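Many introductory courses stop at the sequence. We go one step further.
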Amino acid sequence: MARHRGKAADIHGACTAAVARLVQWTENSRSNQQFECTPHLPVDLRIRPL
């Protein structure tokens, strides 16, 4: 998200629910910061854990 600031997309609290809060957090390469993003419908992205 903001690589120049050392921030990454992170699932808040390593939540495993189908709907979880996505936040910026210090990069740590843990599993809650590893995603696959694919286009979904005309304007959305589907974000899934790796």
